[in-house]
Amino acid sequence: MPKLKKSDFLKETVQHIDIKKHNVVPLVDAMREMAFSARDLARAADIYQMMLEDKNSSVILCLAGSLFSAGLKKVVYDMVKNNMVDAIVSTGAIIVDQDFFEGLGFKHYKGTPYGIDDNDLRDLHIDRIYDTFIDEDELRICDDTTRKIADSLEPRPYSSREFIEEMGRYLSKHGKNKESVVLACYEKRVPIFVPAFSDCSAGFGMVEHQWKNPGRHMSMDSAKDFLELTKIKIEAGETGIYMIGGGVPKNFTQDTVVAADILGEEAPMHKYAVQVTVADSRDGALSGSTLKEASSWGKVETTFEQMVYAEATIAMPIISGYGYHKGAWKNRKARCFSDFLNKQLVKA
Predict the structure, then answer these.
(1) What is the DSSP string of 154-180?
(2) Domain-by-domain residue ranges, the chain?
(3) C-alpha span between 61 and 316 (Å, rounded)
(4) What predicted TM-score, i.e. pTM, was given to this entire model?
(5) Most buried residue, 58, 74, 168, 290, by CB count within 10 Å?
(6) Would residue 326 show up in a list of annotated catalytic residues for this protein?
(7) Stretches in the chain below the pLDDT threshold 70
(8) Exposure of 226 by Cβ count < 10 A (0-12 exposed, 13-18 middle, 19+ buried)?
(9) Candidate list 73, 188, 233, 299, residue with the active-site label
């Protein structure tokens, strides 16, 4: 049997879907007259459209799961470029291992969970995300790049938002793929928060940074993350949250209402809320907890909320595509919350 090579597996790249090319408005309009998940998805699209039409409301996008590696990166990129989102809260893997990784010029590849030996993949330095492959050697370059960025910074605590802004600055100078969410957010002044930032490629880079610079190094301040997003909630007032998956990004964003109350500031519950998830509520985990349940905590209003039990690569292009082709974003102004937070830092 011939010896296996990387090129035997890393052949076809994952292509990112372009919502601009597919007008899903007639499809959603038809699904609205159906039942079950089709009607739920149509109502979610309607609620997202309400967020875009409401000139007093800011939109916070929450991302969890292996989304960009699966072909959803351009959906979020187009949302950022067209003022369809004002802040992002995400897992680290999506922002660093998947988006920043591709911004450096690397790719995700079509794979398969069937008929392969994962031990062979490990020997070839290929990592598998269900039916997607990624080159581990290229991922190590991504790790090392975050280490270089950390090395270049003043040794002090940073919020993830501040560090990701530096990643955007790096891509603006050295990036090879300009269709990057990190870069687009840097240019459009849309803040990205990753509350569990060390749980991704950036974590490896920061471990090396701190290992080599004992006593004088930059660090991540998760409380600063929480404070900054809470400041956005207070500044924004009315908000809509559009959640893909659950986990830390979901809870982190919902909790800003409670945090503002503890600070003695006025901040209404999130007026609009949509969640796309495959988790259910029976195990008591946050990812599957309903938005109605969140109302008992004082986080989400129940008038305009919708759970959609569907897989993200199917539901997100339809919901976001509906918002794009309806065109309400054309009348939205950029909130530039990154600049707002930077001004807050200067005042402090």
Answers:
(1) -SSEE-HHHHHHHHHHHHHHH-S----
(2) 24-347
(3) 11
(4) 0.97
(5) 168
(6) no
(7) 1, 346-348
(8) middle
(9) 299
